[in-house]
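Narrative of accomplishments. A recurring question from our advisory board has been how the design workflow behaves on a single, concrete structure rather than in aggregate. To address it, we present the structure tokens for one chain from the evaluation set, followed by the sequence designed for it. No filtering or post-editing was applied between the two.
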């Protein structure tokens, strides 16, 4: 709540408004369900076609009627080909694990086939040949893939490419390795299923994963190598027997099946985010976007319905003399330091005030005003900020307590991070009582419970507001896609002299800022989460500017 003398009214107090979310999309309205009342799913998978998988493993699984998934390197099946043929007959799944098992060249054994020396086409050819050999040897088509060494890239440095899209194109699913969690239907990417190591573990270590999966309706995919009594890279038969008995106990409601079978069920449920849905979500965001500045090599907005120029006033008292352009020694573009590409860096607290014009850039509506403000911050508030209130963003025509929307860090360590939304001062605080003595002020602030700020990472901040100026305004405050709190009682109006309203950025702020975007609708929780996860950021929703 930084006080900016703009015209001639300033005081403290406020109203904060934050509200509950706006629309619920169809996906969240229904609930994903596993078949037959099951509460979680489990797949057992094994890599490399190790001898012990058919010498010991398949017999054990057959005894319990369990079907497992084996991601094979075709050549390694040859010494036990009859065993593998029998495994297929008994219903086990055969997946693809490449011909040469390429991994990073840091592993000496892979140097003839290191991923750093692969190109996407090399990988495509090898995956196709692997499938062909599996067909020739076993008469089945592999629809599941496991990333060798869990690595998903080819090339090196500037030439590195992800081969996840290739897997998405060629297979029903792709499984990782040494992951730390289960897969969540409705959110998971089939081309990047998480695989949890089963080698060297006792059932006591696996059981909590299953219990957690049952709580959350998730799908655990275990990944191992050898199967036996014990030893290097070995999934123990004792663990497997306990695990299978647990999974098969009807009380535990676990669906134990191959990766292909469960993947097909999840896909057919309509709950996975398809490419079509992603495009649909991006188009919705693009349609609602009114202002966006990437700070990639420039201070002016990349996209704006109104004036794209940044303005600098030398002090807060001199807003009338502000000039277009960035004109402060303390502020610069920090190359390659952004959440995406470059960032805006406030090196130290200064007098200069930066802003963009509000008009058209924020879809102000005197009858029913709604919108969303999204930005990314990177700083250590306690170490970087100087004493005093700090507002990374403040949008108002007068001051922080008069028809204003903002987020701030409080003035002393430890710093609280808050959302403030206050309509016309003369309505919500007619006596003009100062903020320190005014419970109406503090009661309307929403304080973030999550405060993950650090210099090493980026934190996403969103204000989503609706129905302002209707007598029934509301707003939601999100940090990293998670709702921190809402204010669903914002009755007072927000009366703006639109020509004077400004989008102030970095008031007293010290740290990095990136990806400031404003939308003309109140984004839902799902949309905020989509925005938080958006690969390559807002730029990727602008078709003409996509990377
Ligand atoms: Zn492997």
């Amino acid at each position: 709540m930084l006080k900016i003398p703009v015209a001639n009214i300033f005081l403290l107090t406020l109203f904060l408004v934050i509200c509950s979310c706006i629309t619920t999309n169809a996906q969240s309205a229904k609930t994903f369900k596993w078949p037959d009342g099951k509460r979680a799913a489990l797949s057992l998978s094994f890599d490399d076609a190790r001898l012990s998988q058919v010498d010991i493993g398949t017999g054990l699984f057959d005894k319990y009627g369990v079907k497992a998934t084996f991601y094979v390197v075709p050549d390694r099946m040859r010494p036990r080909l009859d065993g593998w043929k029998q495994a297929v007959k008994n219903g086990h799944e055969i997946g693809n694990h490449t011909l040469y098992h390429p991994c990073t060249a840091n592993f000496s054994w892979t140097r003839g086939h290191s991923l750093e020396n692969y190109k996407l086409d090399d990988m495509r050819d090898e995956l196709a040949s692997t499938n062909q050999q599996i067909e020739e040897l076993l008469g089945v088509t592999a629809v599941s893939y496991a990333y060798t060494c869990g690595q998903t890239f080819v090339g090196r440095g500037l030439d590195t490419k992800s081969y996840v899209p290739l897997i998405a194109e060629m297979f029903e699913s792709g499984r990782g390795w040494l992951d730390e969690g289960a897969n969540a239907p409705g959110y998971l990417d089939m081309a990047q299923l998480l695989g949890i190591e089963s080698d060297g573990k006792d059932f006591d270590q696996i059981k909590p994963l299953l219990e957690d999966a049952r709580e959350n309706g998730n799908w655990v995919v275990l990944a191992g190598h050898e199967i036996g009594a014990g030893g290097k890279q070995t999934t123990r038969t004792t663990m497997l027997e306990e695990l299978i008995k647990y999974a098969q106990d009807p009380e535990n409601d676990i669906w134990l099946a191959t990766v292909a079978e469960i993947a097909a069920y999840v896909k057919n449920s309509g709950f996975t985010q398809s490419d079509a849905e992603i495009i649909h979500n991006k188009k919705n965001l693009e349609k609602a976007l009114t202002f966006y500045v990437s700070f990639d090599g420039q201070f002016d907005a990349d996209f704006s319905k109104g004036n794209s120029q940044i303005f600098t006033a030398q002090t807060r008292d001199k807003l009338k003399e502000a000039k277009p352009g960035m004109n402060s020694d303390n502020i610069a573009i920090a190359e390659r330091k952004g959440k995406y590409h470059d960032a805006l860096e406030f090196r130290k607290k200064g007098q200069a005030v930066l802003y963009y014009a509000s008009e058209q850039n924020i879809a102000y509506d005197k009858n029913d005003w709604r919108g969303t403000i999204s930005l990314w911050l990177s700083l250590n508030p306690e170490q970087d900020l100087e004493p005093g209130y700090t507002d990374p963003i403040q949008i108002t025509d007068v001051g922080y307590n008069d028809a204003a929307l903002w987020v701030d860090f409080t003035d002393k360590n430890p710093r609280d991070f808050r959302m403030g939304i206050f309509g016309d001062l003369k309505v919500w605080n007619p006596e003009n009582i100062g903020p320190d003595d005014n419970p109406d002020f503090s009661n309307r602030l929403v304080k973030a419970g999550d405060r993950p700020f650090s210099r090493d990472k980026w934190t996403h901040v969103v204000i989503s507001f609706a129905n302002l100026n209707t007598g029934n305004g509301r707003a939601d405050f999100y940090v990293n896609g998670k709702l921190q709190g809402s204010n669903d009682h914002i009755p007072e109006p927000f009366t703006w002299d639109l020509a004077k309203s400004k989008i102030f950025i970095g008031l007293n702020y010290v740290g990095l800022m990136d990806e400031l975007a404003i939308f003309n609708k109140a984004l839902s929780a799902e949309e905020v989460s989509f925005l938080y996860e958006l690969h390559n950021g807002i730029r990727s929703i602008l078709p003409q500017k996509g990377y």
